[in-house]
Amino acid sequence: MIKIIIFVVAYLVLAPLVGGFLAGIDRIISARMQGRVGPPVLQPFYDVLKLREKEDITVNKVQDFYVTCFFIFVLVTGGIFFAGGDLLLVIFTLTLASVFLIVAAFSSNSPYSQIGAERELLQMLAYEPMVLLTAIGFYIVVGSFEVRQIVATDSMSFLPLIGVFFGFLFILTIKFRKSPFDLSMSHHAHQELVKGLVTEFSGKTMALIEVAHWYENIFLLGFIFLFFANGTIWGAVIGVVVCLAAYFLEVFIDNCFARMKWQVAINSAWIVALVLGMINLFIVYLV
Fold it and tell me: Which N-terminal stretch is annotated as signal sequence (predicted)?
């Protein structure tokens, strides 16, 4: 119990710091790839502090309520994951968090926010099958949905689930809101819907959304870590290195591809889930 409490507290305290730092490095790398100097590495933290000082201007009060629920459920999702809980419950709470953000965007009655919310729903439709297949893959290999048992297993799940790994890596582009699948919103200035899903959010509400995304990114990288965890220090080191490599791969992809249509996002994500995910699980099940 003490170990669980330590991991959860560490996530709640360190995740926004690491997530904000990675976001700052993301901006610098993106700027250098575009021939610019880029902002300081701590710029994301400066932006959040500036948003916290701005006057709250919201369309309606229920909007703030839904965003607060989104933030809370993101924290709950990461808390369950790093406490070693059930992967299916983790996926359910993460989906519920996304639903709260979508409802918040719909409640603003802004055409930009509503189009962004509709695209967010389409993105959920695209990535959810692969996320579920990832959890099922861990169950087939390890025999449990519990994160604590997956981490404590004697062998890495990467080789048996190599197809699932690359499938999950593919849908991370959608979850990280990177091009070519930054359909509903983007953290960079190349979004034709102004700010899409979060157009009508500002001040403390927008700061809460930014911090929630930092939490979410760290939690998603935790999924990558599970593929390499084997109860040893070397497994943990390899897992962390691969997590960082996966994040910077997404940054590279973000700066090398133009945004695609939502049809491409759904079709490609489902094809990847079918080819890499389902076939991999079928082979592992037979073996």
Answer: none
CB 202, CB 57: distance < 8 Å: yes
Give 271's contacts (C-beta < 8 A, 6+ positions apart): none
CA distance 2 to 61: 39
3-state secondary structure of 42: coil
Segment 230-248, tens digit of pLDDT: 888 998 999 999 999 999 9
Structural domain range at position 31: 2-286
For the chain, how many structural domains are there in total? Answer: 1
pLDDT in tens, 108-152: 877 888 888 888 899 999 999 999 999 999 999 998 899 999 998
| 246 touches 24 (CB < 8 A) | no
- Report which secondary-structure segment, H or E, holds 73: helix 61-82
Q: What is the pTM of this model?
A: 0.90
Whole-angstrom distance, CA of residue 211 vs CA of residue 258: 26
- Token pair for 184: 């509903």
